[in-house]
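Q: What residues go here?
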């Protein structure tokens, strides 16, 4: 098992959905590289949109939602990036029901899905139509960059109007660990769309100092007794 997979507690076969803010694409490609290097058959995809630049260096891209295309690509070294459309700026992947079918019928050991967008913000308070999580997801990772702590809420949070409602904040408020925990675990947030049988992990990223790590530990303590969240982990570089 790879370092990132160990930290997330992944099993032998999983459909992993990455939501929230704070480094989803970085974790997507990290899991793909680490798991493929460990001999696993891995499909990476998105149910939203990604920047075209993010896939420019990838060698194994399947431009189809057809299972046969994915299977052929899985016979090659490295992770498969599964996409369905794109232009010069953005690429898109299959809808969540196609990801569910791929998980049910393909030989992939792992399918990792970027299932949310955050416009580069470290924290996300999702709108009613977000995130776009496949129903077959076995693990949902809700991500947050620890650099949200201490920032103004209107600068750190994507969908800030939703965050105001979730945590009762105003525009000039400086985010605390408690605010982040409340937004991450709000019942109308990402937890609303997590499949009932999935494990839910909160992953804290970008902790580069002792102060950051103390803030990450505080968020973990605040979430440790939440009935729906299995663990809060610190993802190192």
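A:
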């Amino acid at each position: 098992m790879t370092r990132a997979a160990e930290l997330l507690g992944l099993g032998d076969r999983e459909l992993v959905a990455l939501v929230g803010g704070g480094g989803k694409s970085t974790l997507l490609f990290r899991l793909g590289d680490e798991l493929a290097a460990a001999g696993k058959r891995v499909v990476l995809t998105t149910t939203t949109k990604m920047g075209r630049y993010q896939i420019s260096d990838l060698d194994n891209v399947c431009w189809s939602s057809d299972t046969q295309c994915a299977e052929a690509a899985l016979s090659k070294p490295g992770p498969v990036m599964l996409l369905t459309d794109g232009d010069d700026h953005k690429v898109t992947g299959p809808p969540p029901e196609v990801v569910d079918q791929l998980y049910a019928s393909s030989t992939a050991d792992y399918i990792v899905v970027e299932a949310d967008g955050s416009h580069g913000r470290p924290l996300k308070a999702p709108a009613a139509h977000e995130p776009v999580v496949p129903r077959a997801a076995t693990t949902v990772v809700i991500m947050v960059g620890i650099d949200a702590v201490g920032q103004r809420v209107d600068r750190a949070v994507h969908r800030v109007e939703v965050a105001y409602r979730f945590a009762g904040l105003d525009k000039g408020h400086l985010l605390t660990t408690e605010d982040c925990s409340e937004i991450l675990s709000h019942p109308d947030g990402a937890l609303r769309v997590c499949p009932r049988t999935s494990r839910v992990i909160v992953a804290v990223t970008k902790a580069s100092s002792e102060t950051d790590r103390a803030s990450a530990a505080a968020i973990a303590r605040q979430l440790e007794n939440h009935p729906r969240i299995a663990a809060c982990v610190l993802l190192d570089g």
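A: Context that may help when evaluating the design: The domain at 3-234 is CATH 3.40.50 (Rossmann fold). The chain is about 30% helix and 25% strand.
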